[in-house]
Design a protein that fits this description.
about 70% helix, about 0% strand, flat
Length: about 70
């Protein structure tokens, strides 16, 4: 579960990076690295916790499902 949480937190980096004072090349490298790292951490976590838990977790993060009523 820790890998999944780290993956989620890593997605903040690409959002914040454009507003930093670093060069454009450095920003591009940081954003690319963060995206790759987040995906690797997600799939490593998915392998450890199982397919069902990973699918449920990914469903929570999908904005299409945020307004659906349960019941």
């Amino acid at each position: 579960m820790g890998f999944l949480i780290i993956s989620l937190l890593t997605w903040v980096i690409p959002v914040v990076a454009p507003f930093t004072p670093f060069s454009t090349a450095a920003k591009a490298g940081v954003i690319t690295g963060a995206i790759v790292f987040a995906e690797v951490m997600f799939w490593a976590g998915a392998l450890l916790v199982g397919k069902e838990v990973a699918a449920k977790y990914k469903g929570y993060l999908n904005p299409k499902n945020w307004r659906k009523e349960k019941g």
